[in-house]
Structure formats: structure tokens, C-alpha cells
Amino acid sequence: MNAEIITIGDEILIGQIVDTNSAYIAKELNKIGISVFQITSVQDDKKHILEALENAQNHAGLVILTGGLGPTKDDITKTTLADYFEDTLVRNKEVVAHIKHIWKTYIKQPLLQVNLDQALVPSKAKVLMNQSGSAPGMWMENNTTVFISLPGVPFEMKALMQNEVLPRLSKQFELPFILHKTVLTYGLGESVIADRISEWENNLPKSVKLAYLPNLGRVRLRLSSKGYDKAVVYKSIHNEIEKLLPQISDVFVGFEEESSIEQIIGNQLIKSNTTLAVAESCTGGRIGAQFTANPGASAYFKGGVIAYDTTIKTQVLGVDKPLIETHSVVSTEVAEAMALGVQKLYNSDYAIATTGNAGPSKGDSDAEVGTVCIAIATPHRVFSKQFTFGKHRERITTKAVHMALTLLQKEIF
Amino acid sequence: MNAEIITIGDEILIGQIVDTNSAYIAKELNKIGISVFQITSVQDDKKHILEALENAQNHAGLVILTGGLGPTKDDITKTTLADYFEDTLVRNKEVVAHIKHIWKTYIKQPLLQVNLDQALVPSKAKVLMNQSGSAPGMWMENNTTVFISLPGVPFEMKALMQNEVLPRLSKQFELPFILHKTVLTYGLGESVIADRISEWENNLPKSVKLAYLPNLGRVRLRLSSKGYDKAVVYKSIHNEIEKLLPQISDVFVGFEEESSIEQIIGNQLIKSNTTLAVAESCTGGRIGAQFTANPGASAYFKGGVIAYDTTIKTQVLGVDKPLIETHSVVSTEVAEAMALGVQKLYNSDYAIATTGNAGPSKGDSDAEVGTVCIAIATPHRVFSKQFTFGKHRERITTKAVHMALTLLQKEIF
Q: B199-232 pLDDT, tens per residue?
């Protein structure tokens, strides 16, 4: 079964927001065996939406729409769906009651006619109750295709996908099993890796597809397979991974689907009953933010010092002033002193420190833009490395975060 | 002139990556007067790409493609473009020289045949030199439509857009002027705002389009207009903004296009020659990361303490243990003590502190999941508020960051 995702909203087409809904929906559909053939973003324009619905119906057995269900005048998805199905809008009692309930309980602002009108749905639509908001989801069918309309607010869309859409699709259709497994590597370019593993790649069975995904020093290798026998699909991927790993053991980091590198590190720390603290200058809190994005981080993450200003490095982290004067604030020596400083101050087992110049101007130090020093303190030692990460501020800090995590991950056992 | 953006790559359609390229391209095209009619994401599949090209040509005078130009076997954009234009691939000498240069100077890994093959382009294509990578951009035309193919790596795509694509489009076509202006508000729901400003909205001139963009406690109101006379377009938006602002002065924060709220705060701090420090518990470094993402943050951002573990709040920030025992670690009292603690330790004029429970379990405190206390210290006073931000970890911390910045922004003069 092929699906098409249609996201509706001018804000996407003028580049004001990035469409993150499509990636989420695509990933979740893949998990239950539905491939996404195309993602289409269209304007809040009736003629254009009708044309997109028509095109999608020609390609896909399932069309998921998001957006355009709000209470304001720029939202036209419902009336357009009614037109497409030659239907009229009717008031759904259950949704009216739900809207009254949430306004009374949570919103505590006046309930307006436009809010109540969110209970209007095409008469042919099966309503999917939205527990997280006022715009209901809708499920409509014709001879060839299922159309599902969901609100554009990511939180509401996600809840409806999990509670209503995915279970109903799994029940109504017999779906194959799709498996993606992504190998994370760090340290070699994609063409060098491709060259090294070319014999393996050329001998891949037809059922296994390979893709290379390079990104700021990391290359991800994604293997995909699909079939009705779950065990066969698993085995075909597993066999190929077993042949692949020995060829790239020097750059292999882990598997993406299982966990991010922060989660891999978190699990290692929990397993060894140890803790982590960070001292961040050029990364400004991003490493801390990445760890604490994971539930349960408090088991191993003590916190950190964002030592953006040089005085914080000396006064809070206890880095010696003469050390900074001798080696410059962007130096491996200062990075090591920062790592040891936060390790001591926070009484942690491991510590990461970053100091660098992310540009665009030179700032506190003489270091060239793009120079970053990273230090790792472990219970046994401290070490550091200096890198040059280009000229682009956001890329410099992202590369620094990637590298710091990669360096730490190899140290924890 | 209408444009369509086609992004190519299975990684988008299985939801492995979010397509951020389209938003960037759409925004940049808007700036030079080109509206984007549709964004289409398709698989690495020849038949499907050909069909998308055909469809796009029927709608659009400009088609921008990204992705599928890498050196590995899954990349098929170039051969597909050659098919579409009934053309063959030829080796471009300038690109060969460029590839040899970057391999020798930066990559320092073996130069393989697949890397050199990146210099193969359709004979009818005008090459757009990619100074940031090895895959060249391509510009092809037929009677009705300009097709531009760009690499999928965001950094390379962006450089080609700025250096080659946008200047060439502006030169070749006479384009209108498009203006979007987005009013940021915080504190009222979209339907209440819509109700309050309905008379103004109903009387908007036809040339001005309004959209509501609600997001986690914020509602953005976007006004758009388009025309060949820049002064007229500016004036039409400006007039409407002037009428709108007095009606929403209690919830108005600023304008999005000019700057994010972090930048607004940064400019206020620079203007008043004051500094900021942060003490982050539940936000884990995100506030620091948002400030330091902006160039020049070192002028006002001293840094912060990520006080994730309770011991850090007492030992590093100097919060009294009895205060925590009496009021719990998630309390306005502790938030205020954290703000004052980091203000003193970092010798800053302003400070933000956050402490809360982002879930999923209760953690160190008795506070319900979703409870967040935020404190602001200024040169004159300290104050705090307690919030309940729902049950969803990522939304709780995002709302906390939004709220903390909004509270601080109102205090700086």
C-alpha cells in the first residue's frame, strides 16, 4: 500500500515554518508497513488542494492531510474536503460536547462561535476524536482511497496518529513489514566508505536497499528491507550488517534506530553507575540540552557550567589565569583545565569541555574562526584535541557537539 | 512567476530526515519576488522523478530540485535530468579541476573515480560552481520552464542559492516585491485574538493577506502583500500594522522577521550595556544554547549554570538546603534563590532561573509533571511565577523557554 502526505498551509510555502509533520507521519506509517510515495505541500487555496487530492488519489491508496483545520478564516481544509466528496458540513454532537468541556476545564477564555464551528465535519466523515485539542480528525473513503485529515499542530497530530489512525489502518489492511537499520559512522567520507565496502554493496540481495547519508563528519548507512514475513526481513538485514561491521569497525559508532549517541552514552553511564558534567563555552549549553532532552537523564547528568565569558572560566571553573595568558583561551590546555574544573566542582566521574571560536568575529581569543578544542575527563585521565570546523557558526557548534559526544562515548565502559 | 520545489531522497519519504531545504529555498525565493506554488518530495526513483518534473513544468516557470547528486549509487538525479532533456552526460573540465583542488587541499583522502564522476553533467546544462563541495549545481531551460538542480547538503545548497541562483534569477526575470511581516504575541488564544480584531480583519484591503500561526502559548499573526511597487507594498502592510497594534498591545512582543526574541533581548542588553546569566534546571542548557546561537552573544551573555542535580543548586548556586526542604526543589522560592545565586556568581545584571519537572516520572521533587517555576532577577528586584505546562517533556521545556524569555524581555529597558 502506497501513501501520500499532503500538508496544507501558506506558512510552509513561504518558508516560515519547516514541515516536521511529514517526517513524523512517514516514519510512523513505515513502522506499520505503509510506504510513502510522495509528500506534497500546498497553499491554503481551494483549487490547489482539490488538484492535490485528485493527483494523490491516482497514486495512493492512503492520503493523509495535515493543516487547515483551525478556527480562523484562513483555514479551508474542511470545506474543501466537503467539495471533493460532494458533501455538506454537519455539526457533530460528540465534538461539540468535547469542545465545551475543554473550554470550561482548561482554556477558561470565552467560548466563541468560531470555536464551536470546529465541530462542523463533512457528513460522510468518520470523526477521529482529538483529545489534545478542538479540531477533530476525519476519515473519509471512496472506492480506491482512504483520506485522513489531521490538525497541523504537531502535538495534536501525533496523538491522533497514535490513538486513532495507526490502529485503524493496521486493522483494516493487511500490511507488510518494513525494516530500516542505520549504521552510524564517524571519521571517513562517504566515497571512501563506499569504495571500501563496494564488493559487499554489489553483492547485496535485491531485497536489501542501501543509502548513504553524510552529515557534518558523520556518515550514516541505511539498510532497508520489506516483506510479509517479519523473520525473513529481520534475517536479511541482520546477515548484511554482520558482513558489513568488520569492514568499518574503525569508524562504527552504533545504530541510529536504537538510540541517539546521547542515549547510548546515557545507558553506558547508568550501567557503570557513573555521572557526567559539562563545561561549555562555544557550544553554549547545547550538549546539556541534548542530554536533558532524554527522560531519565537525572540518573547520570549532574549539570554543567556554561562558561561563555572568560571570567567564568577562571572564577567558576578555576582555570588558572596564567594558563589562559600563556596558551590563549581557545587551547587544549584550557579545555583540559575546564573539564577537570567542572569534574571537581560537580563531583562527576566524566566531564566534557568545549572552548572555541564559532565566529563570525574573533572574540576573546586570537584563535581563527572555526577552531575548537574539546577535552574529555574520565576517572583515569584527561585528554583533549584541537579541531578546525570551517567558517559557519551553526555548523561549527554542531560539529563540536557531534565530536565531543563521539570522543566521550569511546571512553565509557 | 510561480516556482515548485522538488526534494529527492528516500530519507525524506521514510521520515529519517526532516526536509529543511524547502523552507530555506521558499523563504529566499519569496525575498526576490517568486512565490512557491508547491513543494514535492519524491523517492530516489527514475520514473517518479520524471513524473514530478513533468507535473512541475505544467504548473511552474521555475523548478528547483535538491538532492540525489552524491557520488554513491543511490544518487540518480543527474541521469534522470539527462533523460528528461533527452541529453547525455559530459565531463566538465572546470568541475574536474575544482574536485582535484578540494581533494588535494581539504579532504586529503584518496580521490576515487566516483568523486571525479561528480564532474559529469548533462551537455545542455549550465554549470553552477559549488565552492563548498564537489557536486555542481545545474541550470537547464526549455521553452516554458527553468530547472535548477542543487545538492541536498544544506550548507552547499545555501551557498549555491546565494552565490548563483538568486542573483541569476533576479537578473533574468522581472520580479514583483513580496513582503511578509509577522507580529509575535504571547498570552491569548488565536480565536480570542481573532474575535478581538475581527473588524480590522474584515476591512483588510484585498492586497493584504492575514494568517494565524499558533504555537505553544504564542500566536503569530502574519500579514503578506505583493506588488511591483515596493513603496506601495510597504505602505499597505505598515498601515494595517499601525491599526492592529493598539488592539493587541497587552500581548504584543515584537516582529518575527526583524529578530527572534533572543535577538530582541540581546539588542536591549547591548543598548543598556548590561549582561545576562542563566541557571537552568529543567531546561538543561536550552536557554543558553538559544542565546549563544546568535553571533555577538558574548557582548551580553556571560554564561550559566546547568543545575540539573539538586546538589548543584546548593553547592554551586548557593541555594540554602533548608529552603529546598521547606518549599521543595520545584518552587518559586528555589527559582528565585537560583536566579540570585547565578546573578551573584556570574556578576551579571540580569538572570533567568528555571526549575521544574518535565517528566515522565516525578524525579527529585514532589511536583507534578509539568510544573515549572521561573524566576527573573534584575538589577532592582527578583520575581517568580509557577506554571503548569502539560504532560509532554519536550513541550514542557519549550514552553518554559518561551515563557522565561517573554518574562525577561519585559524587564529590560
A: 999 999 999 999 888 877 788 999 999 999 989 9
Burial class (CB in 10 A: 0-12, 13-18, 19+), B184: buried
Instruction: Please tell me if residue B299 touches chain A, with a CB cutoff of 8 Å.
Output: no
Q: In whole angstroms, give the CA distance from residue B27 to residue B41.
A: 17
Residue B25 falls in which region: left (phi positive, over 0), alpha (psi -120 to 50) or beta:
alpha
Q: State which residue of chain B sits closest to A116, comparing Cα positions.
A: B191
**Chain B residues near residue A38 by CB distance under 8 angstroms:** 13, 40-43, 48, 52
ipTM: 0.76
Chain centroid to CA B329: how far?
34
**Residue A198 in contact with partner chain B when CB distance is under 8 A:** no
Q: Reduce the DSSP state of residue A275 to 3 states and report it.
A: coil
Q: Nearest 5°: phi and psi at A319?
A: -70, 135
> Which 3 state secondary structure label does DSSP give B220?
strand
What are the DSSP calls for B322-337, one per residue? Answer: HHHHHH-SSSHHHHHH
Please check whether residue A88 is in contact with residue A96, taking contact to mean a CB–CB distance below 8 angstroms: no
Chain A partners of B201 at a C-beta cutoff of 8 Å? 73
CA dist A186 → A20, A183, A218, B396 (Å): 26, 10, 5, 33
CB contact under 8 A, B292 and A303: no
Give A128-140 pLDDT, tens digit per residue: 999 988 999 999 9
CA A288 to chain centre: 17
CB atoms within 10 A of CB A34: 25
Q: Are B191 and B376 in contact (CB under 8 A)?
A: no
Strand segments, DSSP code E, in B16-145 are: 35-42, 62-66, 89-91, 120-122, 126-128, 137-141
Q: Do B37 and A30 touch (CB under 8 A)?
A: no
Cα(B275)–Cα(B266) distance, rounded to whole angstroms? 9
Contact B23 A44 (CB under 8 A): no
Give mean pLDDT, residues A333-353: 98
Q: For strands B35-42 and B2-8, give the pairing.
A: parallel
Residue percentage of chain B with pLDDT more than 70: 98
